[in-house]
Amino acid sequence: MTAELVRGQNHTLPQTRLEIRVSAGTPVVAGATLGDERGTVRGIEWIAHPGSPQLPGLEVSQQAAADHRLAVDLEALPTGAHRVTVLLALPVGVGGPVRFGAVPAPFVAVTGLDGTEIASFTLTDLDAESAVSALELYRRQDVWKVRAVGQGYAGGLAAMLADQGVTEPAALAGTIQEAVTRGLARSVAPPPRTPEGDRVRHATGSADHRPTAPPPAPEPPEPLTDPAATGPAHTAQPHTAPGPAAAGTAAAGTSAGGPINYAHPRRQHAAPPSPPPTAPPAQQGQPAQPVAGDATGWSMDERLYNQIWGMFEDLARAVAAYRSAVDFAESRMDQELDRALSDPRNRIGGAGDRAREAARAKRDELTSRAREALDRDLAQLAAEAAVVEPALPAAYAGWGNPVWHAHRIPMEIPMALRIGDLHLPERTDLRIPLLVRLPLERGIWVDSGRTASEAAALMDTDRLRRLAMETAVAHAARLLAVYPPGEFAVHVIDPAGSAAGPLAPLVEAGVLAGPPAAGPGGVASVLAHLTRRVDLVQMAVRAGAADSLPPDLDTGEQLLVVNDFPHGFDDRAVTQLRYLADEGPAVGVHLLMVADREEASAYGPILDPLWRSLLRITPVADSHLADPWVGHAWTYEPLTVPPGSRVLEQVLAAVAEARRAAGR
């Protein structure tokens, strides 16, 4: 039975391999310190934080997130460590809350590796504090216990570290916050939480309930009509259901030939909540058992969106469990070897060799069992992906999906747009679509520089830049294709006119708001136009006078594509661009930049906030994006048009025809 603790209360821990789960209503920084018998932190090597997330027996998240899972192996802690203190702090300088009193009370739970909750603690009565010692695990007479602490610090992370006895706490706090800022810049933003609440408790023996399902859209788009979305693809008859999942998880499938069971180890089992009365009922013609489950009243777009994010999280956590198990096996082998070889008797004869062989055999056994569990999860996810991919609507589908050839410009904005695929090295053929919500909440930066990826390093610089601009053009075309006619406009700044080739599809189709702007005058004109739009809409919204906007103002969403930044930009233009990146998304002005950050280094740190505000993608495969749950480095694969296909031209022609028919 779970022990629900209050401040100061303790509870005996029945096991030494644990997870500490943190659920907050806003992104928080999670860390931990180790203390000796007197609670003293002996140095920075005893502190786990996003900039240094791993210690022997302890691992924390590499970034700020609303949910965290900290892995703890009390037997593997460094010699002399008798206490683990879990610390939470609000990130600074990112525009979020600055005190815990302004956010829901954080919830912390200590669980076994199978998800069984041992003890929990809700940190209530916080106000001006921006950092808090949540709980501590401590050893008393060879018995490990957990104590609810809940000590807040209005002085923030530095004050909390100072109270832990850390030397130079302000410098360390700055290092941690810088690591958090870098992590936020590379992290994929999670989808919104469910409307029924911010906190998710984990029932004993049950799977996690994912707090990532999107809220119902007020007017869902039309249901899928493509045959691939309503035919046999909704079941997995060609696939054989994988074997039983690992301990503590749900079965991966039913008998061979039956439909796939989507109850994954960490998949939300319950149907999403019913939509409000304004949402229409389920559309006729949809299959009785849709691909993404049978959530009554939710559109296919909503179900598929939640399905894909569920697969994303499942893969992240399955791989995290596997890597943690492998690390534990290696750590255990090292400890057993140290104990065996520290005994002088084992240095004589073959005792030492036998000890080494036994330790390695145990390591191999644990690793093999972990790999078997991972393979079962991967097989389940692969079977699910094979069913889901053909059923995706155009906004969620890759360029090679036949749905694009039958695409019609919609009358409603879809929930999200696919901008690429993600995969991990444990199984590179299992691709997760990377979806971003619409309207865009964050600009996009297509990196045209020589990144650390092998593909970029081997590519000619000019070819890489052209490929980056082609990627931006393809994303602009996808956005135009999924918005209703006239509700999305694309502006282009090409100061040197170097992108004429990649821009040709947009120019020839006549779907741009105007010719690509060239030269300093063109740059200044477009930036002044969009800056004026942001200013006017902001003033109208604040004054509650949206009807007073000038009649010549286009109230549709606007996308600014900037090629080869910072060429052609003076200081004023750079300031305007930063203003659009910060203020534009809230009023419908979005940024899509093609730039090499190294070339922009001449501006110094003034551009750092700009880069951090954008989601960085690459024109070639690159391992740089992080998931919002575990922080794995995912390989991003850009969407590419199949060789010889004219799908891009066909889509843009459909956009132009829809605009003409609508008189836009």
Automatic annotation (TrEMBL):
The TerD domain, residue ranges: 63-162
Disordered: annotated span: 183-295, 343-368
Name this protein carries in UniProt: TerD family protein
Similarity annotation: Belongs to the CAPAB/TerDEXZ family.
Matches recorded under InterPro entries: P-loop_NTPase (IPR027417), Stress/Tellurium_Resist (IPR051324), TerD (IPR003325)
CDD domains cross-referenced by the UniProt entry: TerD_like
Composition bias type Pro residues, residue spans: 212-224
Comp. bias regions, Basic and acidic residues: 195-211, 353-368
UniProt feature, compositional bias: Low complexity: 225-259, 281-295
